[in-house]
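Long-time lurker, first post.

We've been arguing in lab meeting about whether manganese (II) ion would sit comfortably in this protein at all. Half the group thinks yes, half thinks no, and nobody has a model to point at. So I'm putting the question to the forum: if I give you the sequence and the SMILES, can you give me back a predicted structure of the complex? Inputs are below. Any interpretation is welcome too.
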Amino acid sequence: MPPLHFRSIWISDIHLGTRSLQSRQLLNFLRNTESEYLYLVGDILDLLQAKRSWHWPEINDRIVHTVFEKAKNGTKVFYIPGNHDHLLRNFDGNTVNNITIKNQIIHETVTGHRYLVLHGDKFDCVVQNSPWLANIGSIAYDILLILNRWVNRMRNGLGLEYRSLSAWLKHQVKIVVNYIGSFEEVVVREVEENNVDGLICGHIHQASIKSIGDILYTNSGDWVESCTALAENHDGTLGVVEWARRNPLEDILAYGDEKDLYNNRCLAPTN
Ligand SMILES: [Mn+2]
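Top reply:
Settle the argument with this. Predicted structure of the protein with manganese (II) ion, as tokens:
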């Protein structure tokens, strides 16, 4: 199929280096979309995972290569680090292979609307105010991602399309919904302080476009479960792209079996 063309694309929470990344979906998305701007909105390389065990199948190289190719061929690519790749925040303002690292950046749409783009972990008031609640949440979430992988491996084997287990559960579990609600509220102050029209972030793995008062809150979602991106159309409107939902399964399977290059190899010194 011919590539879908957008003015801008935002993707976040890819978590390269973990087993949870939906790598075939992501590679397929990158190869079948083009844009003038591409923003990588944090938790792209999971450097926290690299301290434990680094999962790096060959397909990850192809994903990285595809992004570098886009940058080489004229797409303006920005890497906005998140909390899982926060080490890269030390490189704010640097450009590597045409990819510029910025801790936050303002994007101006074709219609002149200005949006602040950042990962969003700084709004994590639940984590800051209640560490144990956040811990239970994160353990439960890790378990959920493992379950998600197994369920979808089975669905794959049965010829069924990919479906995000945790995306479904999120709508069922009230505490998580409340958490997402409070997260969205704190962004309002940030937007007002920066004198912009809205905010584009990731971090909570929940794609969204939402008016809060007269500001626009958007979230680009993630590629460990929902396989979503945020995109600016050529008329300046924003939309959520649900890739797994719109994409035929055969295209995804065409990438063949993944060969793990660095499976379970610990990169960090043990002491
Ligand atoms: Mn994050």
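For your lab meeting: The CA atoms of residues 227 and 243 lie 6 Å apart. The two ends are 50 Å apart (CA to CA). Whichever side wins, do check it experimentally.
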